[in-house]
Amino acid sequence: MTLVELMVALLLGLVVTGVAISVFLASRGSFKTNMAVGEVQDASRIAFELLTRDARQAGLTGCGNGSSMANVLKNGTGNGGNDWWADWGNAVHGYEANADDPAVTEGTATANRDATTDSVQLIGIEEGGLSVKSATTSSLTLWSAASNWANGDALVICDPDHAALVQLGSGSGTTSLSWVTSGSNPGNCTANLGFPTVPPAPPGTTACSADPYTYRANAMVSRLNAADWYVGVNPLGGRSLYRRTLTNSGGSLSETSQEIVRNVTDMQILYHENGEASYGDASTVADWNAVDAMQIALTLQSATRQSVAGANATPLTRTVTTVIALRNRVS
Predict the structure, then answer these.
(1) Which of 8, 21, 44, 5 is nearest to 316 (CA)?
(2) Most confident option among 21-30, 171-180, 214-223
(3) What is the tens place of the pLDDT at every residue in 73-83?
(4) What is the pTM of this model?
C-alpha cells in the first residue's frame, strides 16, 4: 500500500463518517422536533378537554332553570358574602389581563396568577346527579345513596319550579340528606329553600328570608362545581395552567389551586354574547348571563428543547385556539 492509497482511504473514511454523523444529527433534530410537537399537542388536548367540561356545565342546574336560584349560602353575594364560587349570578365571568380576579392572588409565588393573562370563572354542577324519592322542607330521601358526597358539600337541588344552592349538613353516604345543620363554613342562613330568597331582608325580617318549600319526587340533586381557570406560577418558576376549585375539609369548604398543565405561558379569552355578531374580550361584555360561547387561545411550550445552530436550545412554542359553546345557553 502506497502513501497515496492510504491518504485516499482516510479521505473516503472521513467522508463516510461525516455523512453518518450528519444523518445522525438530522435524525436527532427531527426526533426532538417531533417530540416537542407531540408534547404541545398532548398538553393542549388535556387543557381544552378539562376546561371544556367546566365551561359546558356553567350555569347548569339539571332542570333548565338556572335563572331561578334560591341561594341560601351565608357567603353568597346576595347574603352579605363575597366568595366568587357562591355567586350563582356569575356562573360565567371572565377577567382581562391586569384586571383583578377575586378568586386568586396575583404575584410571583407558586400558584399565584400571572397578571398579564386572562382568567375565567365557571360555576355549575358536577356530573352524576342523584334523583329524589321523597322530600320535606329541610331534607331529602334519594333513590340511591350519595356515596361520593361528604357533609359540608355545596349542593344544587332543582325541580321544574326552581333550583336551590345549599350546604349539606348530614347524610353523606346514605339516601337521607339534611341541611338543617350545615358545615362551619360557610353555612346556610335558612333551611327554607323557597324561591325567591330575599336578600337583603326587609326591615323586621331575618337575613335570607325564604318560604318553606318541599321538592317534588324525581327532583335532581348534584354537587356544586366551581372552577377558576388561570395561568399561574408553577413550582419551577415557569408558567402553568391552573384550576382553582373547592375542597371540603371536615365539613368546611375552602379553595385550592391545582396545577393542570405545565408550560402554558399565556391564555387569552374572547366571549360571544347572544345576538352579537362578533367576539369581544372581558372588558366589552355587557351581560355575562348572555355569554353563550368562548374563544380560548393557549400559548404552550414544550419541555423538550430544540438545538438550533449557533444558538442555545429553546423550547417549541405554539398558540392553539378553540371555541367552546356553553351548551346550557345555546338554544
Answers:
(1) 44
(2) 214-223
(3) 988 766 777 88
(4) 0.87
Euclidean distance between CA atoms 272 and 325, whole angstroms: 9
* Residue among 295, 301, 279, 294 at smallest CA distance from 328: 294
> What pLDDT shows up at residue 251?
87
Q: Per DSSP, what are the bridge partners of residue 257?
A: 244
Query: Rounded CA gap, 154 and 246, in Å?
Result: 9
Please report the pLDDT score of residue 310 as a whole number. 47
Q: What is 127-151 written as a DSSP string?
A: S--EEEEEE-SSEEEESS--TT--T
Range with lowest mean pLDDT among 27-31, 63-67, 199-203: 199-203
* CA–CA dist 165, 223 (Å, integer): 10
Domain boundaries, the chain: 43-325
CA distance 168 to 175: 13
Grid coordinates of 220: 335532581
Decide if 137 contacts 213 (C-beta within 8 A).
Answer: yes
Counting residues of the chain whose pLDDT is more than 90, the rounded percentage is 57
Sheet containing 311-325: order of strands:
264-273, 291-308, 311-325
119-128 exposure pattern, b = at least 16 Cβ within 10 A, e = fewer: bbbbbbbbee
